[in-house]
Amino acid sequence: KNLTMIFDATCPLVSKVHVEIKNLHKQNYTIIMIGHRGHPEVEGTMGQVQDHIHLVESEADVETLPLDRDIEKIAVVTQTTLSVDETKSIIARLKETFPNLRLPKNEDICYATQNRQDAVKEMAKSCDAVLVIGSKNSSNSNRLKELAENLGVKSYLIDFDYEIKSEWLDQVTNVGVTAGASAPEVLVEGVIKRLQQEGFNTTETLNVVEEHMTFALPSELR
Fold this sequence. Notes:
The protein is built from seven helices and seven strands. The protein is an alpha/beta fold. Helix 2 links the parallel strand 1 (about 30-35) and strand 2 (about 55). Helix 1 runs parallel beside helix 2 (about 40-45) and helix 5 (about 110-125) runs parallel beside helix 6 (about 140-150). It is globular and about 60 Å long.
């Protein structure tokens, strides 16, 4: 007889939005979700209810929603791995379009996502290149890369240290290293070790904000 124990490793912030969507649906709200089409979190969250939920990725999508402006019960939630900066303009447009809009809670946004974006903004001031550790299908990792590039710093998205190309570091004095919210520390350590092998021997930690949030382990593991 095989006994299998299953642990739910869903991020608590994502689970919280799942519960929120179910409660809104029970209260007969029409739900708008801000997120990236095809992203696993978005598909999982929207799959919590059967109907009356719409996805928007941009301000332009708001204009195409098949909803009356004076709808009374309408609420918005967001993909947790977006940042406050990313959702601000879309939420503003939704508020203009739907005066009765019920807004999301700020704590629904992944604190790690926002903090890392704030850190990249600061890092870009003194770096010639930025390495972002994260998967190609990671929404928040791609945003970190784009943010650095928009600030005028060449940026590369990598999964592992062996993907670093030496030519990326030509005429580079300072390299910034950051990681997506789900990237394990061991990958960061591997990238730093590789950079040391490339001659970057001084490591400085950039402290932009202190993170104190913790989550409890599943009860079966405590």
